[in-house]
Amino acid sequence: MQKRFIESLEFPIGEVNQASSSEKGPGRPPFWEMVFWWTRKPLIGARAVIAASLLPEDVDAEKFKKMICLDKSSPHRNNPEIPPEWKEFFSGKKLLDPFAGFGNIPLEALRLGLSATAVELIPTACLFLKAVLEYPKKFGKELVEDVERWGNWITEKLKEDKDLKEIYDDDVAVYIGTWEIKCPWCKRWTPAIGNFWLARVKDSRKRYTRLAFMKPKLKGDEDAIDIVDLNKMHTDISGAKVNTKNREILIDGKTYKVPEANIASRKN
User: Fold this and answer.
1) 3-state SS class at 14
2) Mind listing the pLDDT tens digit for each residue in 31-47?
3) What share of the chain is helix, strand, coil (3-state, %, to 5)?
4) How far, CA to CA in Å, does 6 sit from each of 50, 51, 55, 57?
5) What is the pLDDT of residues 117-130, one digit of tens each?
6) HSE-up (13 A, CA, CB side) for residue 205
7) CA–CA gap between residue 89 and residue 57 (Å, rounded)
8) Within 13 A of 99's CA, how many CA atoms are on the CB side?
9) H helix runs in the chain, sequence order
10) Other CB atoms within 10 A of residue 16 CB
11) What are the distances in angstroms from CA 99 to CA 96, 118, 119, 193, 239?
């Protein structure tokens, strides 16, 4: 049996890994924000493995990288460009993913021109598989326009809801949900927070443009949170020195201490 490109030493595993890692950070695909998923597979990684598993061992490595868009800064944001002479290796092929999860593997199979079948038992996953795989292929651009129109309609209707107005403030950018733990002795509730940072953003020159963190405090007999927004406290934070290990920030000779997490979730 003829070997495939994925078995070749020419397969660009290092470049695929590097491109895959970018999807875990700020460059992650927009639709990943729909729901948190535990074992989400990078799109470019799935694309590279599927394509390399179908192409013969002796294909040109540079041509392969160009086909899966490894020559672009964000490969997953671009559809693969299959050369005409290689289409025979993808045409008529089928992919079965029996544990499809969020659907990244079958999605890349579809982008490569394969027929894909995704199977999942979790109801939530099945719903998102339809949203990611089935409906976009069936309805195309019309679906995008409908989602935008009805999404805006829902947003405006929610603004009119009296109950929601009592809970959410107009000037809040984001809310952070967390579990609370009840002390068995004093019977007070304390939020379990694994990271008190809110923003630690740098520009292309590695200078800080946004720094903010949370700080717990007592408000009467209840726990509360203060927001320490260093952009509002200093006219220029670009020269800030941040020690993430010690959770210290030095700006204009003044030191700020970011609170230590009160729960170590990754150790449990």
Assistant:
1) helix
2) 777 777 767 789 999 99
3) 40, 20, 40
4) 9, 8, 8, 7
5) 999 998 888 988 99
6) 4
7) 12
8) 4
9) 13-22, 43-54, 61-67, 104-111, 123-129, 135-139, 141-159, 162-167, 230-233
10) 21
11) 9, 7, 6, 32, 48
Instruction: Report DSSP state, residue 56.
Output: B
Residue of 170, 14, 40 lying closest to 104 (CA atoms): 40
Which one, of 33, 32, 54, lies nearest residue 41 by Cα? 32
Residue among 262, 266, 265, 258 nearest 200 (CA): 258
Two tokens, residue 153: 């309609």
pLDDT at 122: 87
Q: Tokens 């013969």 label which residue?
A: 56
SS (H, E, C) 94-124: EEEECCCCCCHHHHHHHHCCCEEEECCCCHH
SS (H, E, C) 155-197: HHHHHCCHHHHHHCCCCCCCCCCCCEEECCCCCCEEECCCCCE
Digit-coded pLDDT (tens) for 52-88 = 999 999 999 999 999 999 999 889 999 999 999 999 9
pLDDT at 25: 67
Instruction: Report CA dihedral (140, 142, 145, 151) to the nearest 10 degrees.
Output: -80
Average pLDDT in the 210-226 region? 85
CA distance 106 to 94: 10
Q: Which amino acid is at 151?
A: G
Q: What pLDDT, on a 0 to 100 scale, did the predictor assign at position 26?
A: 66
- Pick the closest to residue 41 from 24, 27, 25, 60 (CA basis): 24
State both tokens at 213: 């963190």
